[in-house]
Design a protein that fits this description.
- With about 190 residues, the protein is α/β, with parallel strands linked by helices.
- It has one domain: Peroxisomal Thiolase, Chain A, domain 1 (3-Layer(aba) Sandwich), CATH 3.40.47.10.
- Helix content is about 45%, strand content about 10%.
- The protein has 8 helices and 7 strands; from the N terminus they run ββαβαβααβαααβαβ.
- Helix 4 packs parallel to helix 7.
- The longest helix is centred in the middle third of the chain and has 15 residues.
- The radius of gyration is 18 Å and the shape is globular.
Length: about 190
C-alpha cells in the first residue's frame, strides 16, 4: 500500500536570494541572476557565467552549529546547511515524524570547493593540503552531519545526477515514504 506524502517545508539558497520567496519572485518577474564573472574568465574556464550567492557566510554564522565544527564546512556545505536548517525550521511548528534518512543533492559544488582549497594553497602560505580539504569538499560530510543533527538512524546519503540532483533526491525521499520504508526524510 502506498502512503500519501507531504512536503512540509523547503529551504532555498540561490543566486536570487535566500528562501523560496526570493526564488519564486525572481522566476515570476523573469529576473536572471546569472552574469559574466571576470574571475572565471581570468582562470581561463570555458564557462564564464556565475550566480553568486548573497550573504552565505552571514546566514551560515547564524546556524546552530558548534564553533569547533564550523571549520569543517566548505562553501558547498555551508550553502547546503543554510538551506537544510531553513527547511527544518520552516516545518510550521508541527512536530514532524522522526526523520529516518537524510538525502543530500549535489551537482558541481564539491569540485569547486576542492579547487578552491588547492588555489588557496598555491596562492597562500598554507600546507599543500589542509587537514580538512577533502572533508570540506564532499557532500557526504553534509549528509552525515545533518543526519546526526536530526537524529536520523539510517544516516545520510548523497544523490549526484548533475543538474537534476535535487529533483532526484526529492523523488527518492518520496518513494521511501510512499513505500513505507521511512516515515520522514530530510532532503538538502
Amino acid at each position: 500500500m502506498r502512503r500519501r506524502v507531504v512536503i512540509s517545508s523547503v529551504g532555498v539558497m540561490s543566486s536570487a536570494g535566500r528562501g523560496t520567496d526570493a526564488l519564486t519572485t525572481a522566476i515570476r518577474d523573469g529576473v536572471c541572476s546569472l552574469a559574466p564573472d571576470e574571475r572565471l574568465r581570468a582562470l581561463g574556464t570555458r564557462g564564464v557565467l556565475s550566480g553568486p550567492l548573497p550573504d552565505v557566510d552571514a546566514a551560515f554564522d547564524q546556524l546552530p552549529i558548534e564553533t569547533s565544527r564550523r571549520a569543517l564546512f566548505g562553501r558547498f556545505c555551508r550553502i547546503g546547511a543554510v538551506a537544510a536548517f531553513d527547511a527544518l525550521a520552516g516545518a510550521g511548528g508541527r512536530t514532524p515524524p522522526a526523520i529516518g534518512r537524510v538525502l543530500v543533492a549535489t551537482a558541481v559544488g564539491p569540485m569547486g570547493e576542492l579547487e578552491s582549497c588547492f588555489r588557496d594553497t598555491l596562492l597562500g602560505d598554507r600546507h599543500p593540503l589542509s587537514t580538512h580539504a577533502v572533508t570540506r569538499a564532499t557532500p557526504s560530510f553534509l549528509a552525515t552531519y545533518l543526519a546526526g543533527a536530526v537524529g536520523a538512524p539510517r544516516g545520510g546519503c548523497v544523490v549526484s545526477c548533475a543538474c537534476v540532483s535535487a529533483l532526484q533526491a526529492l523523488r527518492d525521499a518520496v518513494e521511501l515514504i510512499a513505500a513505507g520504508t521511512e516515515d520522514a526524510c530530510a532532503v538538502a
